[in-house]
């Protein structure tokens, strides 16, 4: 398999493991106290963070093709290599096949995203995510977590506008209202929507799915959008133009998304609006905020 066909996900240490205690020391006592604490506790195993189960399910996909792994997880951390030893000790404890990492000693690590060829950067640091998105890289802030769905299948749900698609249509809705939005989508039904920040991540997921028959695919995807008919047509035609199969599409017409995400069994849900992420959290679904588009402009 060629390198560019592999799905590469970069994750921060605070998204992978629960580092709340040491992070609180950093915030209240400073860098030196944080470094001293991490070194003193480097043999203590960290508890899983919000992104741990997601990473585990991604890596489990490689069991189907052990000679040519379909997925690679990269660690991007603001720890130093010295304090990062605790991170790798915990990675080894849990048997996670993660061998590549960048430790940047307090500097945002987002500039290493293209060097590693990562399709997604998942972090607990909202500022790092904003910098990555501003630079044109797919990124999201993981804001809640839960136990993954009971099956071995990895289930990933996406919002549409400002996530998979650009925010062009969302801008019309926010600035001119629902009637203008609906009229625009009817008029533009045969014109594909522009790419959003997570489009290439979805494409990489689709490439993995193509290695399997649909009924045995280790990945299932869903579009969960506030759109409703007739605005659905443009979405369907856009995915068709991209030649991307999405397994389920839910057009909710503004209904809260949480119950539907739970019914889908989502391991994680990506949305540009924090309110929808909070709805997911209320139903014990892990969510990640994509701070992109008009709804995130201050």
What is the topological layout?
Layout: E1 7-11, H1 13-16, H2 20-29, H3 31-40, H4 52-60, E2 71-77, H5 85-94, E3 100-103, H6 113-116, E4 120-123, H7 126-134, E5 139-144, E6 154-158, H8 168-176, H9 178-187, H10 199-209, E7 219-225, H11 232-242, E8 248-251, H12 258-264, E9 268-271, H13 274-282, E10 287-289
Parallel strand pairs: 1-2, 1-4, 2-3, 4-5, 6-7, 6-9, 7-8, 9-10
Antiparallel strand pairs: 5-10
Helix pairs in contact: 2-3, 8-9, 12-13
Question: Short description, anyone?
Answer:
The chain has about 300 residues and is of the alpha/beta class. It is built from 13 helices and 10 strands.
Observed structural traits:
298 residues; alpha/beta
């Amino acid at each position: 398999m060629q390198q560019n066909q592999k799905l590469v996900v970069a994750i921060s240490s605070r998204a992978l493991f629960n580092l709340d205690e040491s992070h609180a020391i950093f915030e209240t006592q400073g860098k030196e106290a944080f470094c001293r604490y991490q070194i003193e506790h480097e043999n203590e195993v960290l508890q899983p963070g919000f992104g741990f189960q997601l990473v585990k399910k991604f890596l489990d996909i490689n069991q189907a093709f052990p000679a040519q792994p379909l997925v690679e997880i990269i660690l991007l951390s603001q720890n130093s290599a010295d304090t990062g030893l605790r991170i790798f000790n915990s990675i080894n404890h849990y048997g996670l096949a993660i061998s590549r990492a960048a430790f940047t000693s307090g500097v945002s690590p987002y500039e290493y995203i293209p060097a590693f060829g990562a399709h997604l950067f998942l972090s607990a640091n909202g500022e790092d995510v904003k910098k990555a998105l501003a630079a044109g890289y797919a990124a999201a802030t993981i804001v809640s977590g839960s136990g993954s769905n009971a099956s071995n299948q990895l289930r990933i749900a996406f919002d549409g506008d400002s996530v998979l698609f650009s925010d062009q249509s969302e801008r019309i809705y926010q600035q001119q209202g629902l009637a203008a939005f609906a009229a625009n989508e009817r008029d533009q039904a045969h014109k594909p929507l522009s790419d959003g920040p997570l489009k290439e991540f979805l494409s990489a997921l689709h490439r993995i799915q193509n290695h399997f028959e649909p009924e045995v695919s280790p990945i299932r995807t869903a579009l969960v959008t506030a759109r409703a008919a007739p605005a659905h047509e443009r979405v369907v035609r856009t995915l068709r133009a991209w030649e991307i199969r999405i397994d389920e599409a839910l057009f909710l017409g503004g209904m809260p998304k949480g119950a539907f995400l739970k019914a889908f069994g989502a391991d994680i849900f990506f949305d540009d609006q924090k309110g929808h992420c909070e709805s997911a959290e209320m139903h014990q679904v892990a969510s990640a905020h994509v701070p992109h588009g008009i709804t995130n402009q201050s």
